[in-house]
Amino acid sequence: MLAAGLSLRQRGYRGRFAPSPTGALHRGNLRTALLSWLHARLQGGEWLLRIDDLDRPRNRPGAVQRIVADLRWLGLDWDGPPRLQSDRRGLYASVLSALRRAGHLYPCGCSRRLLADISAPHGALAVYPGFCRQGGIGWGPQQGRLPSWRLRLAAGPIRWQEESARPGCLEGAAEVGDVVLRRADGMVAYHLATAVDELSLGITTVVRGDDLWASTGAQVAVEALLGAPAPSYWHVPLWRDAQGLRLSKRDAAEGLEGLREGGADGPGVIGLLAASLGLVPEASRLSAAELCQQLTLPLLMAAVHRP
Ligand code: GLU
């Protein structure tokens, strides 16, 4: 499966957009989708839609259908069928077993409560302090619960090719740490599923929101353990409201429904998303395909990273 992905990469650019179906896409998500689509299409590339639906309790009924309908309405067409992570659990399980057998994972019994108690007063502990790294925990039915499984991450810099202004580099031990790849409740963690998918789906370029920049270190580390070069990454700025806060899927007014209620149609919304980056004048109306035709890759990159 991973080998098939690597040969897909030889065919050229393959990008992806990977929303979680936790609600309707807001205009920030839509703008990221548009940028990812433009980046792929301007390079004659393929663009996949992956649905990150592993975290079942957070999924909202009907969200997948809405995401699909909203992207279609905006003319952001993807190649092949949407790829659901929930259909790929067998693949993640076999990769986890292989990593475990090769000694790259260790069981961890630290509860979230314990980690929260020792963390800084504001916010969760960023990097796991490695309490369970030296082993010695015999896991069996007597524990009454399962361990999580953590990546035994080597110290040293983790580098990746990054198209945003911030260089792609994190220090493994101090800034990434031994992340969880399989949660104690059995759920496959985001970093594992994402790394496996980038490789098995043959993704060459990941364009996604800036909030995921710090996640890249762990994902690139897993990709390296799986024996494949990481894709290249472009982390794009998030759309922030007037107070500088990021938009939330919980705020329905920020989604397409709110925009449609305000009278916007597809070309109006593409104009709004593109104008927010200075790609077109305010109040422009154009389709995604027309926007693509009038842009070049250097123009796109320069507009997004204009100081
Ligand atoms: N599913 C993640 C989200 O919606 C994005 C994953 C990714 O692009 O790597 O935030």
Question: Which helices and strands, and how do they pair?
Answer:
Blueprint: H1 2-9, E1 14-17, H2 27-41, E2 46-51, H3 63-73, E3 83-84, H4 89-101, E4 105-108, H5 112-117, E5 148-151, E6 157-159, E7 169-171, H6 172-176, E8 180-182, H7 190-200, E9 205-209, H8 216-225, E10 232-236, H9 256-261, H10 266-275, H11 288-294, H12 297-304
Parallel strand pairs: 1-2, 2-3, 9-10
Antiparallel strand pairs: 4-5, 5-8, 6-7
The protein binds glutamic acid.
Residues 18-20, 52, 194, 208, 212 line the site of glutamic acid (GLU).
Give structural notes.
The protein has 307 residues and is an alpha/beta fold. It has two domains: 2-89 and 193-304, HUPs (Rossmann fold, 3-Layer(aba) Sandwich); 105-190, no CATH class. Helix content is 36%, strand content 13%. It has twelve helices and ten strands. The protein has helices at 2-9, 27-41, 63-73, 89-101, 112-117, 172-176, 190-200, 216-225, 256-261, 266-275, 288-294, 297-304; strands at 14-17, 46-51, 83-84, 105-108, 148-151, 157-159, 169-171, 180-182, 205-209, 232-236. A three-stranded parallel beta sheet has the order 1-2-3, covered by helices on one side. α8 links the parallel β9 (205-209) and β10. α1 crosses α7 (190-200) and α7 packs across α8 (216-225). It is globular. The mean pLDDT is 92. It binds glutamic acid. Glutamic acid (GLU) is lined by residues 18-20, 52, 194, 208, 212. Residues 18-20, 52, 194, 208, 212 line the site of glutamic acid.
